[in-house]
Design goal:
α8 packs antiparallel against α9. It contains ten helices and six strands, in the order ααββαββααβαβαααα. The radius of gyration is 20 Å and the shape is globular. With 191 residues, the chain is mainly alpha-helical. The termini are far apart.
């Protein structure tokens, strides 16, 4: 890559198939990014590809590609799903250095900002909370949200109904109902 830069040759993209990890790898388990520092360019992209982003107060985010005549549009296109077109344009077109964790929270990129010393504890608390939920229902809802985003409302509804149907008759579905009636935490086995 460095030699091509020196010779002024075009550099092929590192990967021509940028898309959210969930959709690319059919990764339907929730992912959490704990950002403690500077997340720019590729680091920003990897944080963006997680479902939940928790940032330390000192964390900073940026997309500086336009300042250096670098590409990035393939992975940037998904950013509008998270923060909307206006904020995505502001962040990507101006390449104005870094935004704070608080600003990233304000525009909807970060779910929560915590102190640096509490970052991993908070990320683990989110993960532990997720472990108390019904695995199949979590997987189905994540698929419905990611895949349904691109569908027209009728297609999205059909997908959601199909995903809902595969919960019917599961042992976990029966356990969830029993636990609700018995006013106790459910014990899921993903069956």
């Amino acid at each position: 890559r460095a030699e091509k830069i020196e010779r002024g040759e075009p550099i092929p993209p590192m990967d021509e198939r940028w898309m959210p990890l969930s959709e690319r790898f059919e990764l339907w388990k929730p992912t959490i990014a704990a950002v403690n520092g500077i997340a720019v360019a590729g680091g920003f992209m990897y944080a963006m590809q997680c479902d939940i982003r928790i940032a330390a107060e000192e964390a900073e985010f940026g997309v500086p590609e336009v300042r250096w005549n670098r590409g990035g549009a393939p992975w940037m296109s998904c950013l509008t799903r998270i923060i909307g077109l206006g904020h995505a344009l502001e962040l990507c077109l101006w390449g104005d250095g870094l935004i704070s964790a608080q600003r990233a929270y304000e525009i909807g990129f970060v779910n929560k900002v915590v102190s640096q010393e509490n970052l991993m504890e908070e990320a683990m608390a989110w993960a532990e909370r997720m472990l108390t939920l019904a695995p199949r229902a979590v997987m189905n809802i994540k698929q419905a949200l990611y895949r349904g985003y691109y569908m027209n409302p009728l297609e999205g509804e059909a997908l959601s109904w199909a995903l809902e149907q595969n919960l019917q008759g599961m042992e976990d579905s029966l356990e969830g109902a029993r636990a609700f009636v018995e006013k106790r935490p459910p014990v899921y086995k993903n069956r």
